[in-house]
TrEMBL record, chain A:
Gene3D superfamilies: Trafficking protein particle complex subunit 3. The keyword Magnesium does not apply. Its main location: endoplasmic reticulum. It comes from the Eukaryota. InterPro entries: NO_sig/Golgi_transp_ligand-bd (IPR024096), TRAPP_component (IPR007194), TRAPPC6/Trs33 (IPR037992). Pfam families: TRAPP. The keyword Oxidoreductase does not apply. Component of a transport protein particle (TRAPP) complex that may function in specific stages of inter-organelle traffic. Specifically involved in the early development of neural circuitry, likely by controlling the frequency and amplitude of intracellular calcium transients implicated in the regulation of neuron differentiation and survival. It comes from Ceratitis capitata. This is Trafficking protein particle complex subunit 6B. Keywords: Endoplasmic reticulum, Golgi apparatus, Neurogenesis. SUPFAM superfamilies: Ligand-binding domain in the NO signalling and Golgi transport.
UniProtKB/TrEMBL annotation, chain B:
CDD domains: TRAPPC3_bet3 (cd14942). It comes from the Eukaryota. Belongs to the TRAPP small subunits family. BET3 subfamily. It comes from Ceratitis capitata. The keyword Transport applies. The lineage of its organism: Eukaryota, Metazoa, Ecdysozoa, Arthropoda, Hexapoda. InterPro entries: Bet3, NO_sig/Golgi_transp_ligand-bd, TRAPP_component. This is Trafficking protein particle complex subunit. May play a role in vesicular transport from endoplasmic reticulum to Golgi.
From TrEMBL, chain C:
Pfam families: Sybindin. The keyword Endoplasmic reticulum applies. Its main location: endoplasmic reticulum. It comes from the Eukaryota. GO terms for cellular component: endoplasmic reticulum; Golgi apparatus; TRAPP complex. This is Trafficking protein particle complex subunit. It comes from Ceratitis capitata. Belongs to the TRAPP small subunits family. BET5 subfamily. Keywords: Endoplasmic reticulum, ER-Golgi transport, Golgi apparatus, Transport.
């Protein structure tokens, strides 16, 4: 728990640094990149002694269940796929939104708190050989849906 | 459901998650600023902001009363490192007047996967720590200076953080009183 | 036992939050004025109490009681001041305030990334959690006379 609070504060400061300090209110690229970089390296450490995943579905399951639980302290509430490379992860109490009020004004700020995670997931998948696009939507705080689209060339 | 989950030591993963995220932030800042000194300042400022919040969690968690002297403060800072970063720095090198001491780290969790390239020798990679201490202590009315004396990233055997008491900040007096 | 109202001030005396439950009488001055007067009074009591104390006042001023109500005071080392008005029968208020600090203030104010330190609290989430916390406490029950 004590490390969690430290991380949450760091995350909040990273958000401020990337968006406000550089006057880039709507440019989430730096935030996404910090997440990407973290995810890429973290997954390397987590999987280096593990057998390779047998296919995309197994990789996705690993990221959306084990990896998610380790980082976000809870299991995702729902994981769905259309079997055509589109995965939707639903978290009804997303870690970085649980201390924020549910109002309309707060909802405007919600995107700030999901982009690091979009990058984190994309980075982890990239390292495991899957090229993807990750987006998130917040309709009601603290719930969040992440859409992971596998880019097949 | 998962054959993998039990393999992971979640405490270790979380520590690495923090370390790597911090590393990614430093990397981003090095892209944003040409001058390394600016990166040091930004990291220090981020630490300062974190310290201002972290102190409240620490006080609530430990029910610690206000410190009456620097030796107590040193013990609390040591305790905070144990709680939040799972490391225990040694308190040493007290000045004769007991207003200045060092925290000596055998290992620094923030730099576990880091090697500084030659051109970044001016980077004070762990500035977040000094900022954090400064921010936290300012909230309990202690104005301190905090700087690195030794740094394992620069080839020293240990990482040494020096903390110097400057002054006790006064409590605010309400308007109309004196 | 019952709880009337609560003030939270920061170390600079800024009113961070005010809430009331079973308060039936207003003071007749504005909320801001009342807060200022309350803070000023506490400041004076605090310095007076520590000045005239026959022992080293480690804990300082904790509460005062009139024949109709009691005022309980908790100050953190960071200068946050929790001021709770209760009836005269209220017990263990110190523990309640300590809990309020760690379980509600730290959780829903300090950890709210949209709150900036030193600014008054407007979070509805905090308001809801505080209200639940107070209403679930043993101290809270409306007294019928």
């Amino acid at each position: 728990m004590s490390e969690d609070i430290l991380f949450d504060f760091l995350h909040a400061e990273i958000v401020n640094y990337c968006l406000h300090d550089n006057n880039k209110e709507n440019d989430f690229s730096a935030l996404e990149y910090i997440g990407f970089n973290t995810g890429y390296r973290l997954i390397e450490r987590l999987t280096r002694d593990a057998p390779r995943f047998k296919d995309e579905l197994e990789t996705m399951k690993f990221i959306c269940t084990d990896f998610w639980t380790l980082i976000y302290k809870k299991q995702v509430d729902n994981l769905r796929t259309n079997n055509h490379g589109m995965y939707v992860v639903q978290d009804k109490a997303f870690r970085f939104l649980t201390r924020i009020s549910t109002g309309a004004k707060q909802l405007e700020h919600a995107p700030k708190f999901v982009f690091f995670t979009c990058g984190l997931v994309r980075g982890a998948l990239t390292n495991l050989g899957i090229n993807s696009t990750v987006t998130a939507e917040v309709q009601t705080i603290p719930a969040c849906k992440f859409h992971i689209e596998i880019n097949r060339n | 459901m998962s054959r993998q989950a039990s393999r992971f030591d979640s405490k270790k993963v979380n520590a690495e998650f923090l370390t790597l995220t911090y590393g990614a932030l430093v990397t981003q800042m090095l892209r944003d600023f040409e001058n390394v000194e600016d990166v040091n300042k930004q990291l220090e400022r981020i630490g300062y902001n974190m310290g201002m919040r972290l102190i409240e969690d620490f006080l609530a968690r430990t029910s610690a009363p206000r410190c009456l002297e620097m030796r107590e403060t040193a013990d609390r800072i040591q305790q905070a490192f144990r709680i939040y970063l799972n490391v225990q720095p040694t308190i040493s090198n007290w000045s004769a007047s007991s207003d200045e001491f060092s925290l000596v780290f055998e290992t620094n969790p923030l730099t576990e996967f880091v090697e500084l390239p030659q051109d970044l020798t001016n980077l004070r990679y762990s500035s977040i720590l000094s900022g954090c201490i400064r921010g936290a202590l300012e909230m309990v009315q202690l104005d301190v200076q905090c700087w690195f004396v030794q740094d394992q990233l620069k080839g020293d055997n240990v990482t040494e953080l020096r903390i110097k008491f400057v002054r006790r900040l006064e409590d605010a007096i309400p308007a109309g009183e004196d | 036992m019952t709880i009337y109202h609560l003030y939270i001030f920061d170390k600079l005396g800024t009113m961070m939050y005010y809430a009331e439950w079973n308060r039936t009488k207003k003071s007749g001055v504005s909320r801001e004025e009342e807060a200022k007067l309350t803070y000023g009074m506490l400041f004076s009591i605090k310095s007076f109490v520590s000045k005239i104390s026959p022992h080293d006042p480690r804990e300082g001023f904790l509460f005062y009681k009139t024949n109709r109500y009691a005022l309980h005071y908790m100050e953190t080392p960071s200068g946050l001041k929790f001021v709770l008005y209760t009836d005269t029968a209220a017990l263990n208020v110190k523990e309640l305030l300590q809990q309020l600090y760690s379980k509600i203030w730290v959780e829903y104010v300090v950890r709210d990334p949209l709150w900036s330190p030193g600014t008054p609290v407007t979070s509805e989430l905090f308001q809801t959690k505080l209200d639940e916390f107070i209403k679930q406490s043993a101290l809270y029950s409306i007294r019928n006379i």
